[in-house]
Amino acid sequence: MKWLRRALVGLIALLLVTLAIGWVYLGDLVLAVAAPRVPFDRANVPPAPDYDQPAAWSARPETVDAADAEVEGVAIAADPEVDVFYLHPTSFLGNAWNAGLDDATVNVATDQGATRIQASLFSGCCRVFAPRYRQANMTAFTTASADGAAAIGLAGDDAIAAFRHYLEHDNHGRPFILAAHSQGSFVGLRLLREVIAPGPLRQQLVAAYLLGGPVTVEALGDLPVCESPAQTGCVVGFNARSLGYRPGIEFVENPPPPAGAPPRTRVCVNPLTWTTDAAQASGGLGAVFWDSSGARPTPRPGFASARCEAGTLYVELSGSVPRDFMSRLLDHALGAGNYHAIEYGLFWLDLRANARARAAAFVAQEAAVRRDM
Question: InterPro entries, from UniProt (predicted)?
Fold first, then answer.
């Protein structure tokens, strides 16, 4: 039976080596599995959303939904004067170029993994409008290609259609915040540049929070980056990493900048100071981390310190981040020290308080203008 023992030992050794290689190259494997096997074909995409239908929204003010999730000791605004239009990050793990809105698994992932943990923070200042959209395959954001750019374009078409629906049926001249993360920030930047910034809607923009994407100063055109806590009409952005970050999955601009263009400057606004300077800051109001149980989380004050350097927000943590098994796999694929998945959570109360401060400043400015008329 020695041959059988040797065979078993060999199989176990092969399995361990395979697992080790898979762990080292997890990010590459994830992208390889997710990559579409056919070219993008606009004649063969999922049906367009009908934003007259409640199913096309992850959150709206008149429904009980994930944006109503509560945090211990944090109150929801009773009658806010400002809206937030929120674009969720990628929740689609299939290998099609774009996700359909009839995929229940994707929709649950959007609601629980994005709207609940991100959009809910704006319930302190705003009515929350969070559309679903035909989100693009994750590889469209890691490798610049014509197919990927077309898939992102389709997602952006939906975001613009949803925003126009919101304007026509819900806005009624109210001030609004644009908020997004990751893929949402890609399409949110397009919405900002093509629809909001060029015309009168810019006068209703409180601020834009475009987190976790390759948002550059150059791409913003004449839209200013936020430089103070109560500034309005400006853009907040950052990409959070640890000091010992080792690159894994990174996002690129798609379509890319023109060939020969000078290097672009990533937007980095420190969510502890709301400035772009390089000073180290600490004393955050509170990180908030959610789990799958649905329990109401408790904020963790002073959990993170941070500084901006060369377009990156370098973060130091005072404790461990609670992550389940699948979340830890995601973290490893992104790269050691890549805090992309928890960029809202690390600064949850700080973002919430700042959105309230900017909303209040905007409303006060409007009131002052009316008094002077």
Answer: AB_hydrolase_fold (IPR029058), DUF3089 (IPR021440)
